[in-house]
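Observation: inputs received (chain + pyridoxal-5'-phosphate).
Thought: call the complex predictor directly.
Action: predict_structure
Action Input:
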Amino acid sequence: MIEITPVLDSKNDKPLYIQLANYIKQEILSGRIKPKDKLPSKRRLSNYLSISLNTIQSAYDQLCAEGYLESKPRKGLYVTHFDRDINLNQPTLVKSEPQQKSAETKVKIDFNSGKVDLEHFPYAIWKKLTIQSLYEDQANLFNIGDPQGEQLLREQIKTQLFASRGVRCSSDQLIIGAGTQSLIGLLCLIIGKENIFALENPGYHRTRIVLEDLGAKTVAIPLDEDGITIQELRISGANVVYVTPSHQFPNGMIMPISRRMELLKWAEENKGYIIEDDYDGEYRYKGKPIPSLQGLDVNESVVYLGTFSKSLIPSIRISYMVLPPTLMKRYKEHFTVYKQTVSRLHQDTLYRFLKEGHWESHLNKMRTLYRKKHSTLMLAIKDYFGEQISVIGEKSGLHIVLEIRTNMDEHELISKAINVGVKVYPLSIYYQRESPGSRILLGFGGLSEDEIVTGIRLLKEAWSLI
Ligand SMILES: Cc1ncc(COP(=O)(O)O)c(C=O)c1O
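Observation:
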């Protein structure tokens, strides 16, 4: 049956049959119902729309009288074939964008920093565990769950966090959420949007946008080679600071322990909060591991944020935050009214994945794999560009920054790369004031080693540096 699903309003001044006739007329004029299409029988449409046969009859009569429909004896009602150009009262429709054959469609190698390796994702295990989450004895999972997230999953995350990042917490301090931005939004409400939030500059624009959209005041704090500058933070008037100490986003430096201690001291002196976003702390290629700020903190001033977007897959949308007891108390008192944003089924599957040790073995496999990709990338950059390029932030994570010795700005570098089928990314969106100069962002997690080498070779061709 052709689709006829009007919204009919019995309180409207127009009788129902006119509303239905007008709807069908618009569908014919817009081409969604085509000439020679057969309309459903009166009885069928009456059952389908739950309105009386008389209303359908009157609407069809009206459309026949206006010439939109014709009745064929013993066959039914059909849309009349007429020249659609003569229907001048056709409504303006929102047209979908014409399919542009833009330069984007030629992209062969995409150095997107949000992508991870999908070839080695354990599909079979994930599928098996997903099916287990759907077993009948799990039927309670179809009901709304705990606003904080599934208790079993929180227990598992807590245990893993302590082992891998030195984060000390109880499962009751954990809140699960569908992505970092959604958690930042909730956190801003818990901390209070009347506070001033200090942000790294350059820094993660998605955090800044959420805070500003919620009406919080933000201040941009410059970085030095160790990360956020404490001197500037002190004079900013802020009492909350958001940082990415394991791998500064986007510049990639790892905050040394001395700067971490200074930051914790700032929080203690100002009765402030530090939001530690440890988005890809699992991947480190050089240097000793440095404990998380949360693990070093003795004043309950750190909120720890983590995600499975880098260590598993970004589309699963499972991230989490660990709140210090004071903020947890506020959450329990005022914010459990916000329902959990992650599907209980995904949470349950992830719980099984963690409990059975698959996450740990996946992570170990990925660490080796990304280490290989990383050294291939570094080698290719050295081979093709030598001294013409400096690499920034290469000690950990799944992206690096390239500083190119050239007069070309970021825009020119990106468009020249696109011309040879390579997509590289701007840094300017992460800066609040100044421009990054001749620098671009390069993610490598989603590319194979061959693609990485080809991509760098093509970049050399595109930028034709002497
Ligand atoms: C700085 C930063 N934080 C967090 C994330 C992860 O975000 P989500 O948990 O929403 O996937 C990313 C991902 O690219 C990031 O760059």
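Thought: report the result.
Final Answer: The domain at 16-89 is CATH 1.10.10.10 (Arc Repressor Mutant, subunit A). The pocket of pyridoxal-5'-phosphate is lined by residues 114, 179-181, 204, 244, 249, 277, 279, 307, 309, 314, 319 (CB under 6 Å).
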